[in-house]
Write a structure and sequence with these properties.
The complex is a heterodimer of chains A (371) and B (275). Chain A has 371 residues and is of the alpha/beta class. Chain A has eleven helices and 16 strands. Classes of the chains: A alpha/beta (371), B alpha/beta (275).
Chain lengths: 371, 275
């Protein structure tokens, strides 16, 4: 096997030119050449379609209304693509020969996760495109989180539901030849490897993150879900109060073939977490934006997410996601007036400088749809 | 030169420990998930540093049945003269491991391969440094004087490595790693924090010992060895049919994946295709 090393040091250097902190040295190893038209930011850079429906979630129970979500999915995809019907909208991205991975987010499970109704709707549209169930995968890294959602009860027979780490920390399902190598704090295992299904099986990926606060990254949306959700050994980036999430998230998302194959972003903001994320242990930190956001540009969608989380935190009297005072870092405390780390919401702007999308709000075209 | 005594097998003791034998702690892993610390890495109780420091001494373990296989493999890996005391339930486990150790191909006495020389003054500080180097797979061997063939030579109390730095052995081990650089390390492992390695070899062949200190299997362990070694043979405890995966030998390094190992695996690599 021929391996090509794509050393992205020049790109990283330009991305951090305006950042007054040290960026770790990253060595990116991949045998996959960058695509001339990578999935991120894809055909719709700087574009986001927000579909909101008051009836999408019963806030008393947290339950999701399936018919409403189906309608939101249809309207969102048609608006994003400009297609006259759903079939044409999905045909923009997929055909019957594709093997599709749906990267869900289950770190807030069993309460907050990529909604079964939304994932089910995505699967229905893929099958309608002629993709066999055996070529569709719902995937996550950790089996305990994924299995607690029970997607199997809501999906057609034959859909693959796959967790990369049969036991926590197992590297068996990661590609030993596709990785990012860096030494953050002296850890001996300096590699983060990409999930093997991504390099060897999938032709396309749909990213379905939630709208959540993240104690280390500031927020967790499209970029964090696709980056940390597709590589091993990533928690090492936030082993200390001052983390390396600023640069690591975008660096991982750039690695081929992940960048080229992730062709669609559908952010599930039906339910969200405004503090304590990415987990959802305390119900008082949950909220209900009742929104799904569509696009191909993960940076643009995440830029909008920053304001959603910050606005909600401000309304609740919580510490700003932009606060960088070490005095406000109290690890282990689930108190919204403090953080467990210095948050790095700048990871989204950093990713934009790598070429993953549009960060400037003035250049992001947002379409709002009410269902 | 420290030699690896490949054929020295541990013994299951039936009586009291010999008066001259040194007791070794029970080898194990302690996970520290809920403990505030600079690192969330598990803590490994390993005896390699003691066995390397005094390789000709007589040692003994007194271990529960669950630790017998690990203790026997640890003793074998370092070529130490060891008696193992255990409860009756441990005898069958010991015999199974002993049978495995006997079936490992004999390669003769192969010298230790290392990046670092440690000039051992016999102090507790140097002992703890050796312990940290062992646990972090920073390959070293004991030397009586600096060896120019090695990448680094460490003598605690020297200007470069003052005794005061030994107060934080973890930080000192990190300093040594930084000075050596990862690129020059003869052996690296990825995908586990609980596997300790040992490397011996000569004449175009190397033997890699992989010892898993956890009580559950390690899967997908990636190993990198400097040098192109296109041929391999693996012997793995409880995994008689184990095959290495994703094997590459090019650009001055050999890499492979051990798909699953239980307590102990021995991998022989050779530059000769007839190996």
């Amino acid at each position: 096997m021929h391996r090509r090393d794509f050393l992205q040091l020049a790109t990283v250097a330009s991305a951090c030119a305006a950042t007054p902190i040290d960026i770790p040295k990253y060595r990116v190893v991949s045998r996959f050449a960058p695509s001339p038209k990578p999935g991120m930011p894809g055909p719709f850079p700087g574009k986001a379609v927000r579909v909101h429906s008051e009836k999408s979630v019963d806030t008393a129970t947290g339950s999701v209304d399936a018919p409403t979500v189906t309608e939101m999915l249809s309207r969102g995809m048609r608006s994003l693509t400009g297609a006259k019907d759903e079939r044409d909208a999905w045909a923009n991205f997929f055909d019957a020969s594709d093997v599709v991975g749906i990267k869900v987010n289950c770190s807030g499970a069993p309460k907050i996760f990529s909604a079964r109704q939304l994932v089910g709707g995505i699967v229905d549209n893929l099958i309608a495109r002629g993709i066999p169930a055996r070529n569709i995968y719902i995937y996550e890294r950790f089996p305990d989180q994924l299995s607690s959602v029970r997607y199997d009860r809501y999906l057609p027979a034959g859909i693959n539901i796959f967790a990369a780490e049969a036991t926590r920390g197992s590297s068996a399902s990661y590609d030993p030849n596709t990785y990012v190598e860096t030494n953050f704090f002296g850890e001996d295992d300096t590699r983060s490897n990409m999930i093997r299904l991504v390099t060897e099986r999938f032709t396309k990926i749909i990213n379905v993150p939630n709208m959540k606060d993240h104690a280390a990254a500031g927020v967790t949306g499209c970029l964090k879900n696709i980056a940390y959700g597709d590589f091993s050994n990533v928690a090492r980036s936030h082993n200390r109060e001052k983390t390396n999430t600023l640069s690591f998230i975008g660096t991982l998302a750039m690695v081929e073939p992940l960048r080229s194959r992730t062709v669609l972003q559908i952010m599930d903001g039906l339910r969200g977490v405004w503090h304590g994320g990415p987990f959802s242990e305390d119900p008082k930190f949950r909220f209900y934006p009742k929104t799904i956001v569509f696009g191909t540009d993960p940076v643009a969608i995440d830029r909008l997410l920053l304001d959603v989380i910050e606005t909600k935190r401000k309304a609740e009297g919580a510490l700003s996601i932009w606060d960088r005072s070490i005095d406000n870092v109290k690890p282990g405390r689930l108190d919204p007036h403090f953080g467990s780390f210095i948050r790095e919401p700048g990871h989204i702007e950093y990713a934009s400088r790598l070429g993953l999308g549009v960060y400037d709000l003035q250049k992001i075209a947002v379409t709002n749809i009410e269902v | 030169m420290t030699l690896f005594l490949a054929a020295l097998l541990p013994v299951l003791a039936t009586g009291p420990a010999d008066a001259d034998a040194v007791k070794l702690p029970v080898p194990k892993v302690e996970y520290r998930i809920n403990e505030a610390s600079a690192s969330r890495s598990p803590w490994i109780d390993a005896n390699g540093w003691q066995l390397l420091r005094a390789p000709t001494r007589h040692y003994f373990y007194d271990v529960p049945a669950a630790s017998v296989a690990l203790a026997a493999a640890e003793a074998f890996m370092y070529g130490a003269k060891v008696d193992i005391h255990t409860e009756s339930a441990g005898a069958a486990i010991f015999n199974r491991m002993l049978q495995f150790l006997r079936e490992i191909p004999e390669r003769g006495e192969l010298p230790t391969l290392a990046n670092i020389g440690v000039i051992d003054d016999g102090s507790a500080e140097t002992g703890e440094l050796m312990n940290l180097l062992t646990r972090r797979n920073l390959l070293y061997r004991n030397v009586t004087a600096p060896d120019p063939q090695l990448g680094l030579n460490i003598r605690l109390g020297s200007q470069q490595y003052p005794k005061s730095e030994a107060a934080d052995p973890s930080k000192l081990a990190q300093k040594i790693r930084t000075e050596l650089t990862d690129d020059k390390r003869l052996l690296r492992v990825y995908g586990s924090e609980v596997v300790i390695t040992r490397l011996v070899g000569a004449g175009g062949q190397v033997r890699i010992h992989l010892l898993n200190y956890a009580n559950r299997p390690v899967t997908g362990l990636r190993v990198r060895v400097l040098g192109n070694y296109p041929s391999w043979h693996v012997a793995a405890y409880d995994k008689p049919d184990l095959k290495l995966e994703d094997f590459t030998a090019s650009d001055g390094a050999t890499e492979f994946t051990v798909p699953e190992m239980s307590t102990y695996a021995v991998i022989d690599l050779s530059k000769s295709s007839s190996h």
